[in-house]
Amino acid sequence: MNPWTLRTYNGFSLDLEDYYQNLNFDFYSYNNYQVSLSQHQETRGELPSEFVLYFSKQDLFLPLLKTLEKIDDEEILTKANEILSAIKIEINNLDDISKIKPIYGFISEEGSLLIEWIFKDFRIGFNLDHDSKESSWYLVTLPSIGEINASGYLTNVDIPSLVKWLTTFLSSHIL
Predict the structure, then answer these.
(1) Residue 42 C-alpha from the chain's centroid
(2) Are strands 122-128 and 113-118 parallel, antiparallel or unpaired?
(3) Using CA atoms in the order 148, 75, 94, 67, what is the torsion angle rounded to 10 degrees?
(4) Residue 13 carries which DSSP code?
(5) How far apart are CA 35 and CA 56, in angstroms?
(6) DSSP letter at 9?
(7) For 112-156, what is each residue's pLDDT tens digit?
(8) What is the number of alpha carbons within 13 Å of residue 150 lying toward its C-beta?
(9) Spatial contact of 88 and 82, defined as CB atoms under 8 Å apart
(10) Cα distance between residue 119 and residue 174, in whole Å
(11) Distance separating alpha carbons of residues 43 and 46, to the nearest angstrom
(12) pTM given for the model
């Protein structure tokens, strides 16, 4: 078997040799990590339809980190980093990340930040507003898994506990 060919459980294969020169890291240093191929056609989302390779747990955060670089509001950045740290702790506790999707960040015209985790049947999100009293979280699912609509404000919420609850839901529905 060609060492540059990646095969998935459903028979899809990708020849990495053609893409190697576009990678900005040492491919061989990542050969012990699980690899996740994800095609971004998720729950009512408008993300690009392309395959993306995630070689480590840390790479799941790259789309969000790129968005955070564009944020100037220190209060939003502080809250985003608190959420991100809690998610990293929970992700690091998972053995299998093969079905975990990347976490995205979107900046609104008003400058608020939406952190969103988009899966086939559900979304988990955090909306961080300039007015911290308006910042919130949500979990929304499709009818196929119960049509759950849970949400709340982030004021006086224990972020690690909330993230643990949300990632427990996540792991019980995708792993």
Answers:
(1) 12
(2) antiparallel
(3) 90
(4) E
(5) 7
(6) T
(7) 999 999 988 999 999 999 999 999 999 999 999 999 999 999 999
(8) 11
(9) no
(10) 9
(11) 9
(12) 0.68
